[in-house]
Amino acid sequence: MNFPKLFEMQSFLDQNIRLTQGIPVDKDLTEDKKDALDVEISELQNEIKYFKFWKRPETRKVNREAALEEYVDGLHFFLSLGNDYQVPLECGYREILVKDDLQGQFRIIKHYISIMNGPMHWHIAFGLYLGLAEMLGFSDEEIERKYLEKNTINHQRQAEGY
């Protein structure tokens, strides 16, 4: 993934949202973004359905494209928080940490998001999030493609008064 490009695109989207929504530049949105990221990760969990023990396995079919879109929605907030924490754009971000199972991976990601207060926790959480993509079989190319699509949609939504 071309992280410098994605960080810059996210910065432009965030500036557009602030301008469109009338949010002052000095208003700190970090906690709101962390909450939004947590919700997006929960939506991804709901799409993957791994925890729905009450449903028969054949009814837990995953819509891969919908799961990828939820993953990318979370990526938007990770990038936004990375910009807020002034994470260097040129970092490789290839330290992918993977737990033994999806439930463990989701839980540790959410843990680090809940305690995130700077670049160190962001790096750990983001590495885990990249590991989650690997566990789900999402390639860098398809993540970046979906991010570009969704970023365009997000700009359109702002232009249309979302």
Automatic annotation (TrEMBL):
It holds the Pfam family dUTPase_2. SUPFAM superfamilies: all-alpha NTP pyrophosphatases. InterPro entries: dUTPase/dCTP_pyrophosphatase, UCP030140. This is Dimeric dUTPase (All-alpha-NTP-PPase superfamily). It comes from Siminovitchia thermophila.
